[in-house]
């Protein structure tokens, strides 16, 4: 398995309607960058992403892959999921403290390789960050790496889980994996067929960088 830089997803050109979620995520990235007193050039140097792409992303004209969101989040002292969640409106805190329900058509979404990730909670503070992943990519792309522990379980399909420095593990429906923070990780379809997973990451503690 080799590392491959995943292409960013281009959105319609400026003369078309800009994707609303991409616009909100871009505005949030710009606000964080300015708060950190970084120029686009400096952010590009920190992330390894191109200055033109970051400029397009901040304006909502390009949508970053999940790997790129992870790089941007690390450079801006936030999390990949927090950036993704910025694309969804924040819901008011329920008065009755009842369950937070997310319907099947809801949840902020982000692209990765030839699939998509969906945030399984509404925007706002949570004790953990659950994501739904669907894809059929046979190349794992770059490693994700963050300080928080993570758990995943496969709902359908066969997945190759690559933990940096360890043997690649094949996981099928009903199989799960848990790995500690700081472990580089990536995954792909074992045979080119579609896979479906739930991935749950700890929410960073206050004051801890991504």
From TrEMBL:
InterPro entries: Cro/C1-type_HTH, Cupin_2, Lambda_DNA-bd_dom_sf, RmlC-like_jellyroll, RmlC_Cupin_sf, TransReg_Diox_bact_type
Domain HTH cro/C1-type residue range list: 29-83
Superkingdom: Bacteria
Biased composition (Basic and acidic residues): 90-100
Pfam families: Cupin_2 (PF07883), HTH_3 (PF01381)
Region described as Disordered: spans on this chain: 89-111
Keywords assigned by UniProt, alphabetized: DNA-binding
Protein name per its UniProtKB record: XRE family transcriptional regulator
Organism of this sequence: Curtobacterium herbarum
């Amino acid at each position: 398995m080799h590392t491959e830089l995943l292409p960013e997803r281009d959105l319609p050109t400026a003369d078309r309607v800009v994707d609303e979620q991409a616009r909100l995520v871009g505005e949030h990235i710009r606000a964080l960058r300015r708060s950190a007193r970084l120029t686009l050039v400096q952010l590009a140097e920190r992330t390894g992403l191109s200055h033109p792409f970051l400029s397009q992303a901040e304006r909502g004209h390009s949508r970053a892959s999940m790997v790129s969101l992870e790089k941007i989040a690390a450079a801006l002292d936030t999390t990949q999921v927090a950036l993704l969640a910025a694309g969804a409106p924040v819901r008011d805190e329920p008065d009755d403290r009842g369950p937070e329900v997310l319907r099947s058509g809801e949840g902020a979404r982000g692209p990765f390789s030839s699939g998509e990730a969906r945030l399984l909670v509404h925007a706002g503070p949570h004790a953990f960050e659950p994501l739904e992943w669907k894809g059929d990519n046979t190349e794992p792309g770059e490693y994700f790496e963050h300080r928080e522990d993570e758990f995943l379980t496969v709902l359908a399909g066969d997945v190759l889980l690559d933990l940096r420095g360890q043997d690649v593990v094949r996981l099928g429906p009903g199989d799960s994996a848990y790995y500690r923070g700081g472990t580089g990780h990536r995954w792909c379809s074992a045979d080119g067929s579609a896979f479906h997973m739930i991935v749950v990451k700890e929410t960073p503690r206050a004051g801890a960088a991504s």
